[in-house]
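Proteins fold reproducibly. Next comes an illustrative record:
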Amino acid sequence: NDGGSSYIKLSADGYYKIHLNTATDELTIEPYEGTVGVYTQIAMPGDYQGWSTADNLLNPMSTLDNVENHDWFLKSVTYEDTGLKFAADNDWAVNWGGNGFPHGQGTQDGPNINVVAGTYHVYFNDILGTYYFVPVE
């Protein structure tokens, strides 16, 4: 911010992917071209709890009425070494798995996410399938 900054203006309504490279201070904004689902709940089924899509629910970041939520979190959850996925609306029809840990980008019907034993804050975005397991110190 040089003191003369103004609002970031977009040419059209919609969803956008925002990329910020903090090493170079470069910002890019591009329209998101994929389909966007709206879900009432996201769970983390896995080996540790019998793969139940009704348990271990994440909290929506936006709790405002008439606002779509796409970011989810769960604070201070402890795991032994386990495999898990993210699943929407108490069903396997929409689920995300991925190869990365402690962060990655899940894909529909992707592989189990191999979580290393520890306590984490978990963050998930249901548009991009991105997830982060942040260690709790």
The mean pLDDT is 93.
